[in-house]
Amino acid sequence: MTALVASLGFLPMALGHGSGAEVQKPLATVVIGGLISATLLTLFVLPTLYAQLAKRVR
Predict the structure, then answer these.
(1) Residues 23-52: what's their mean pLDDT?
(2) How far apart are CA 13 and CA 46, in angstroms?
(3) Does residue 58 surpass a pLDDT of 90?
(4) What count of Cα atoms within 13 Å lies in the side-chain half-sphere of residue 45?
(5) Rg (the chain; Cα; Å)
(6) b (16+ CB within 10 A) / e for 2-28
(7) Geometric angle at alpha carbon 37, from 27 and 17, rounded to 5°
(8) Is this model's pTM higher than 0.85 or not?
(9) DSSP class per residue in 19-55
């Protein structure tokens, strides 16, 4: 939920035009991409790795 709201907050910066947009667009796209990738890693990859490691320990 937090990452979604933050991504939506950066969306106007990523889509904006006008003065300063050439600096704000790359920054906003990187932040949005980082939020999305961190969320996916936290929700899917880390639990999968934990389950695999838990099987090995047993």
Answers:
(1) 96
(2) 30
(3) no
(4) 7
(5) 17
(6) ebeeebeebeebbeeeeeeeeebeeeb
(7) 25
(8) no
(9) TTHHHHHHHHHHHHHHHHHHHHIIIIIHHHHHHHHHH
